[in-house]
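From the methods appendix. Each design record in this collection lists the tokenized structure first, followed by the designed amino acid sequence. Records were kept in a plain field format so they could be parsed without special tools. The example shown here is representative of the layout used throughout.

RECORD:
FOLD TOKENS (147 positions):
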């Protein structure tokens, strides 16, 4: 009986994920896509810009992950040594435990951060046109670029 309960608790997560994906696929239909000629024109217009944006996203993700990891490790050390040198165990023995949240945040937020930096320090109109053009082809679903 105990092994059946353990199996059920391990199997329920993939089952719930599969059900959520099935319901999302059924009820959340994609918007209309661009035609091949429209995609070709959009691709030609932003031929060089898309590479700069892609490389910037990778740089932003790496910087975000490293900075957030450093912040969490520093906070860990500060809180662990807050009671004094006599009681200074580290909260976690490895700093690798602090890579999950920075890594997930870097993957989830790199487009948003790049878009905000581009619109703040670059050409805001070009960023808005880039996002509006690709939004139709389901490559850009962000609504964070509002002026």
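DESIGN:
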């Amino acid at each position: 009986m105990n092994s059946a309960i353990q199996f059920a608790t391990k199997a329920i997560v993939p089952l719930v994920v599969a059900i959520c994906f099935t319901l999302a696929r059924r009820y959340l239909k994609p918007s209309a896509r661009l035609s091949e000629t429209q995609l070709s024109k959009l691709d030609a217009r932003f031929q060089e810009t898309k590479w700069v944006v892609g490389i910037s996203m990778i740089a932003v993700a790496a910087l975000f992950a490293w900075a957030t990891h450093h912040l969490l490790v520093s906070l860990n050390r500060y809180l662990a040594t807050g009671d004094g040198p006599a009681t200074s165990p580290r909260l976690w023995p490895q700093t690798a435990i602090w890579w999950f949240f920075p890594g997930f945040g870097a993957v989830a937020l790199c487009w948003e951060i790049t878009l905000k930096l581009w619109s703040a320090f670059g050409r805001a109109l070009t960023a808005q046109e880039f996002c509006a053009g690709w939004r139709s082809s389901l490559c850009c679903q962000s609504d964070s670029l509002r002026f």
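APPENDIX NOTE: The CA atoms of residues 119 and 126 lie 8 Å apart.
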